[in-house]
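1st attempt posting a full record on here, be nice pls
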Amino acid sequence: MKLEHALSPMIRNRSILSQNFEADDLELIKQIKQLKLDVINQRIDKKKMSLLRPEVVDSWIRSFNHGLNVFDYNYAPALDKDALHLRCQEKASLLESSEPFIHQLSTMLADSQCIILLSDEVGSMLRVLEGSKKLEDQNKRFKLVTGSIWNEETVGTCAHGISLIHGIPMQICGPEHYCEKYDDIFCSAAPIFDGNQNLAGTLSIVSPSYHQQNAHSLGLVVSMAWAIQKDFQLCFNKELLHVTMDSADKGVLTINKAGIITQANNMAQSFFNNLLEHDLIGMPYQTVFGHLSFIDSVLNDGKAVFDTEFLLERWNQHINITSVQALLDTAGQNMGCVLTFKRNPSARKLAQAHGLPAKYTFDHILGKSRDFTDSISFSRKFSLLDANILVQGESGTGKEMFAHAIHHESRPKGPFVAVNCAAIPSTLIESELFGYEGGSFTGAERQGRPGKIELANGGTLFLDEIGDMPLELQPVLLRVLDEKRVMRLGSRHYLPVDFRLISATNRDLSELVESERFRQDLLYRLQVLQINIPPLRKRGEDIILLARHFVQRVANKQRMAVPELSDELIITLLNYDWPGNVRQLENTMLYAVNVSNGNMIRPEHLPENIQTAIKHLTVSRSKNLSETKSLPMKDIEKIFISEALLQSNNNVSEAALLLKMSRSTLYRKIKEYQLDTK
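the predicted structure (as C-alpha cells):
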C-alpha cells in the first residue's frame, strides 16, 4: 500500500503551518460525521463514498456490529496487574527492541503535545508515554493506560486498530474515529512485524490537537516502527541462526576477519570442550587448528575450500573439514568465514582409548604446611588403591589439581575426563554423562554420542561439584558404579566400562543427605577414600610460598624482573582470610604485579576489596583480641626467616644482617624450625 493512502483526507491537503480549523475543514468534518451515521444506519451504499478510505468505512460497520455506541466513550477493558506483568514478560523482546527508539521519539516530540503508544498484536497497551502533565490529565477521561486493551472490538475505529487488522500504516483524524467522543483526537500508527512476519504490535503517535498532526507525523511513526522492527527481527535472526546451527549434524564455526572464532554450534562446542581449557568462542582459530593457509585464503580472497582431512596435532585428533566458505554481507563484502567439520570415526576411538592427558602431577602441588602435606601424602597412598575417592575442600583450594595428580599416578595411560556437575544444565547432564544413540531426542546427533562415563573407560572420571548432581540421576550413577557398565539414552544394550572415579565437592554431603538432596548409599560409594584439602587461611607459610610462586610466574611470562614482597605485604597476606583460597591468591598477585610497576610489592598494590577487608579485620581484631585469627608469632617468625634465607641465597651471615639477629641465634632458629639451608 502506498503511504499516501494511509493519510487522512483531513490531513492530505492542509498546510503544515495551519493551527486552526478553516471553513473547508469544518465542512469536511461535518460531511464525515454525517456519512458515518448514514453508513452504520444503512442509508447509503459504502461503495458510493469516494471521500473516505474503504478501510475506515469497513471499520465503522464492524464497530457498529460489535455493539458499540457512536455517542459513548466505549471504555476499553484493562489487564490486571498480574496479567499485565505476564504479558510484558511474553513481549520482552519487543519491549527491549522498542525502548531506545521510543525514548528517541519522545525526545523528538518533547515540545509537541503528543502521546506515544506501543501495543501488542491484540491492542493491549505495553507503553503509554504522555509528554506532559496536561496530556496525562486529558488522557484520564479516555482511561487509556498501560494494560488497557484498545482495538476495534473494544473502542471502535482507531488508527492502530486498523493497523492491527490490515497490517498497514494508518492515520485517523477526528470524526473518522467511530466514537464521537474522540472527535478531537488525531492519530498516526504503523504495524511492527517479527522476524517470521507475524504481527507483533503497533507504534502510534496520538495528539489531542489538530495542528500537531500532519503528513510528517505518519512518516515519523512509520520510520520509527520500521527501526524497531529491524532491531526486533535482528534478534529473531540471531536466534534462528543458533537454532539452525545447533540442528546441524556437523560442527559449525564462524570466524571473523581477524581470525577470531565468534560462534560455534553445540556439536563444535561439545567436541572442543573435551580438548580445550577455555571457552572456544573468542579464541583465535590458530590456537585451535594451528596456522592453516587455506583458512587465511578464504578470509582474504573469499575462495571456498571443500573436503579436507585435517590432523589436530596438539591432541592427535583427526577431523574432516567439509567446507570453509566466505561469509558475505548484502553488499558482497567479506565478513569472515563459516567452517564446518565432521569428527573422523577414528578420532572418536582415539578419544575413547586415550582421552585427555592429566595436566598436573604431585610435583606441581606446592605446600609445606603440615595439614596440606598430610593431604598430599594421603593422596599419593590412595593413588595406588583402585577405589573411589572423594576430595573435600572449599572452592579454589585445588581439588581438580589433586584429581589430575592422582590420575597421573594411578592410570597415566588412560583418559582423564572431567565433568562439572554444577556447570551443566540439569536437562543435559544425563546425556553428557551417559551418552545417547542417534535420534534419541530432538537435536540429537545422527550418529549418537558417547557419554563422559564411556569416554573415561580405561582412565579416570572426575565429577566436580558432585553435590549438585540432580537427585533423579544419582541412582543411575550408583548402578553404573555397582555394575561397571553403562547404557546410552535410547539404547537397549549395556557397554562395559572400567574407570577410576574421583569426586569433589565444597559442600557438606552429609547435610545434603539429611535434607534428602543426596542419596546416602551413593555417598558411601563415593567416600571409600576421602581427602580433605585445608583452606588457604589455615596453611600459614604456604600463603607466602604460593604468593612468591605466582609473582615469579607472572613476571617471567611478562618478561620483567621479579618484584620482592615487602614485609608489610607479607603481614597483610598472612592476616587476610582468603575466602577464594588459592585461586583468589593467584588473581590477587597477578593484579599486584601489574599495579606495582616496580621492584617491590606493597599492601597498597593489592586489590581495593582486599585492602578494605584487611582494615575491617584489623579493627575487629583490635576490639576482641581473644578471637584473633592471626598466625602465632612463631609461625610468622619462621616465615620471615625463610624469606631472609631465600633473599640471601641461604647465606646465614647475610640473612642474620637482614633479620638484625646474631648468627648463633639464627642457627638455633633454623634448627628449631627445621629449615633447609642447602
